[in-house]
Amino acid sequence: MRDINQFTITDAVKKTFETEQGSRFEQLLHGLLDHLHDYTREHQVTHEEWMGVLNFLYDCGQISTPERHEFILLSDVLGFSALVDMINTKGGATEGSNLGPFYLDEAPRKQLGSDLSDDRDGVCILVHGKITDTLHNPLPGAVIDTWQADAAGTYPIQEQEQGQDKYDLRGVFEADEQGRFYYTTVLPKPYTVPYDGPVGRLLRAGNRHAWRPAHLHYIVRAPGMNAITTEVFFENMEYIDNDAVFGVRKSLIAKVSPAKDVAALGYALDKTPDAVCAFDFVLAPEG
Amino acid sequence: MRDINQFTITDAVKKTFETEQGSRFEQLLHGLLDHLHDYTREHQVTHEEWMGVLNFLYDCGQISTPERHEFILLSDVLGFSALVDMINTKGGATEGSNLGPFYLDEAPRKQLGSDLSDDRDGVCILVHGKITDTLHNPLPGAVIDTWQADAAGTYPIQEQEQGQDKYDLRGVFEADEQGRFYYTTVLPKPYTVPYDGPVGRLLRAGNRHAWRPAHLHYIVRAPGMNAITTEVFFENMEYIDNDAVFGVRKSLIAKVSPAKDVAALGYALDKTPDAVCAFDFVLAPEG
Predict the structure, then answer these.
(1) What ipTM does this complex have?
(2) Distance from C-alpha of B93 to C-alpha of B281, rounded to nearest angstrom
């Protein structure tokens, strides 16, 4: 190893790892070493620049807590989270999109037709649609887990100190025998990702904003099907074409229309909506 | 941006950064995005694998303190620190090697010929050599800053709680009018890099050890010359050919010989050495 130079060191480093030949761990490790060593050579990275990278990661680590994962945020604003979502979307299924930092296990079960808004101010929308497989067969008993911001762009979990209940604006619904789901809620507003830390410094250094367009979060599951984690956005709304975390896909944009013919849908609703947003989810079979 | 897919997202992310065209920041940022997005695509990285990477970085951040920079350690064991040293070594100059985590500003000034060991047990070695420019001209007044482990492989700074002085086994010497330096000290022993954290988990996952061969650390400076940060290793000693952080270069390995003809060197020494280690440093001019 005393003979290594800048062109042979990459193989030397790989060889020190006694990984199972051809294993996934080996592939991922070797690929990362190849790409990042090439990067370092191609750009003739200096000591100061490299320490800048390492200290940036250090700072990301120092601001992180169990409630704030700055490395997920970094992955989001650099498009990695979106790229991983795109790569892992199954053919024919609804496209995946960011999980985001506000998901909570064990959101409350709600009845179809109930209202999620807990009387919050804002536009009351009916959100409804069907959950099917890729051959358009309805999936009765599919489960839809949703969470969202309010009409000020805030998640209740962010304002627990102001007395908000972190389980507000969340709910788990079971689709009916036709695979339908329906509930009313408040139309959410855009908000910024946290920009008071190292990732915010990076955004400012590149003259980038921190805004996300308004959206609803979903995890949809059904027995024997691949679960999907995704988001639904709203046509013509602010930041729809420049989401700070690259979550928007054309197929995930829903129309919001005035609630004219809601009665004809035949839903039993707890609250009368001002507007309607329809969106169908498609799940692909496992394996 | 709603039309992005896994092949167009990389350019879309680059375009959101309004960086100065052709600036170093833009080059480094775009290069990193190109390489790491390619990596993600080539290996079809899954959500679980990507979260594994992000959580590994999170863990590195959580164990880091002002005294422990786990990201530097990660850079070391993956060969990045060595690669950056190699890339930035100036033609004709002594090769660079790891700074390591134990450097201290303001180590005590010592007289040539003094002993660094503070009466520690072990083999007493005379370390001596010349500091020249790349044309072999001596550099009188060059300054050599050294620090090292003891004969148990421990740096005094690691045992401050056991009453050790963190400035022990360190010294700053000024070369004489012939560019010579000379001092006695204790022959250091191999030691392990910290492996009780996430980087240790990575090493174990790849069946790698955490040992470094014994070495002396140096920063050498002279007016008008590029300073070098490097290490000197000892021929035939343990781990010399499998340093956990890839610091060894053939040109940085010195011989350790019995101290037979020390008197002929004409040095005034505070202590009589058992062995001699000779090493010359070469500095390249600035710019």
Answers:
(1) 0.93
(2) 8
